[in-house]
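Record type: ASSEMBLY
Status: queued
Input:
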Amino acid sequence: MLFNSFDFFLFLFIVLITFWLLPAKFKWIFLLISSYFFYAQWNPIYLLLLIFTTVIDYTIALKITSSKAKFKSKLGIYLSVIMNLGVLFIFKYYNFFHESIKEIYKLFSIEYNYNTSTLLLPVGISFYTFQVLSYSIDVYKKVIVPEKRIGKFALFVSFFPQLVAGPIERAKDLLPQINKQRFRINSENARIGLLYIFWGLFQKVAIADNIATLVDKVYENPLNVESGLLLYTVLLFSFQIYTDFAGYSNMAVGIAKLFGYELTLNFKSPYLSPSISIFWKNWHISLSRWVKDYIYIPLGGNRISVQKTYINLIITFFIVGLWHGASFNFIFWGLLNGLFLILERLLHLKNESKNTIVNSFRIILTFVLISLIWVPFRAKSISETIDIFKKIMFDFKLAELKFWIVENISSIFIIPLILLISIELIIKKRNLESILTWKKHQQILFFLMLIFTIILTGKTNGGAFIYFQF
Amino acid sequence: MIKKVFHILLIAGIFICLDKLIGQYFTTLYEENYCQHAGGDVNYYLKHGNSDTIVIGSSRVNTMINPKILGEKIVNISKPSKHLYYNIAIIHLLKQYNKLPTNGLILLSLELEDFYIESEQKLINDVYYLKYYYNTNDYIRTIINKTSYYEPLKFLISSYRFNGENFKLFTNQFQHICDGDINGYYPIRSKISEKDYLTKMKQDLHEKLSKINHKTSEELVSLIHFCKKNNVNLSLIVPPSIYYSKKKKLIKTEIENLCQMNKINLLDFSSESEFRDLKLWADCIHLNSLGSEIYSYKIKEKLKT
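Status: finished
Output:
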């Protein structure tokens, strides 16, 4: 059930009406059942895996706090980490791990055989695994007390708006909301929720899915396309991946809001960042906070020597890359990000400039750099990535691009893209909700513009969200 | 509470009025559009077309069959990247607009790949190009509704029929003539390289064809009956291939049987060795201008016999 499908909206409508009609004490139970139903639509068998993860981590968290012996608590957290990462390894990294060993053995002309795993990747496994891990670690570090009611903990793990592609929520933020006793139908929440839902839907169907048509075509055989058009596609992919993921995240935030829950905003106009360091503070915020709190800082962060800080950045982004996908492409993408972060520190370009013109120039440069860094994320292999870079840098031609632009000047995503950039510039300093402080007629105009743009340009039968594959 | 309900009703009312206005505006643009894109070529033929023989298909017709070689009063209304369901929808539209060549001939070029397509949705998506006619054409409506139960809900919104190429509709009104010849023949002048040919052969060896999609065959049978009912002679063409594919033998046999049972003329060029010459090909799928000329003459010869 994709968020941009009628089936989902029907499901949401039924769940919402029922939720608000039920007495307060039954609301969370109904949400839990609905969340399990939602997840089972992807694959009922993997619902068992989700329940298994929930039960194990619930039990371990209680044991961590109940045992007086420190070594037992430590054992508990190690067990939780090994179990969660173990499950992730089996479903996501098993084949990649063995393929990597095979490549290493090949260097020494030694044959390496293994049984290929045919297990399908459960939807959302990377997200909910990190979410439960953060819970276990926070319990161990005594940041939070463990949740005693297994049903409410299960809802924390499986809350359907954020289950399949985040945001990765912290227990200290979501559990208190799940435990609240009072619910009031709030028209303000409804307005905010609908704003995020429509904005997310607009980003996904009007921009991401339409850009995907060109990007997919070019990336089928990127070296057969002239470098000017290739670079244009590379830049467009930046918009595709942003609007695809942000679209989903915004819809998740909006849907949760309709139920009276607050989720983390995952994006804050990331392409208007004047440096890659600032970009990572505004892109996939829940993941970057997670890796900062549970990997980068425990490694020492930037409180140690400069060299060790750089090593920590590399390690952190190695894990970020690996989290995204079991392939060297993603690792390469992660490491590229890490390297540029180090470079920014060396050149003292981490923070934004006070000069507006310099800042504007840096925003454009950062956007182009980020777009180029996205190439391994989309390309089929590292060698294809390198070939694409070589083609853009050493064989730059514009003829095919000029022809394409003339032929496709009325490309279906151009107007929605202009609308997106305009709104991002307007809300840059505040957030999307600031639109609800506009005058009433301006708000109505904005909503109608969004709705009609979706109707007139939104891709019919668009694809799944990109981040669902993680 | 009453105020909120009033506000909601007011916004709904504004939405409905705007929708009707936008729908009407784009309808006017569509009806006046004769340019190649955004349905203009289809619109032009449905209003002004008149011929005894219609050639229809995808890019293999669009770039490979020269109607002027076939004869007089023959028109090529093919569209690149549009496959069987789209072509059948065009034939139903011709009937709706009284443009069927009654007692004349429709030459429909078949793509064997359409019969191996895993998901019918890929063929259905082509028909969305004609969604302007959703409300007036039963076939188009039936095919589009196969996507999901909710498709009819989308079409309750007037402006949804213009989802997709509406900006092009807007820019087309500043062009006063059609792009190129409405007789849709656009030959390709380039030549395939041996390297590309060998790469394609290698890919094809590893390609696993899915099972035959019988829904495609069923649609073809329905079309045959439709043409018979409307006194239209239907001939099917299987275009030439750059190499002989054993894998597609199964569906070819099925099409041959189908044509025999229904007494339909089948012009099969897929096995003709004359077309194995790389000089005649622009890429692995399309003949170039030289190959297209030879192909068009061969069709003319076969039609005479």
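Annotation: Residues 58 and 79 of chain B are 5 Å apart (CA to CA).
Annotation: The first helix of chain B runs from residue 2 to 32.
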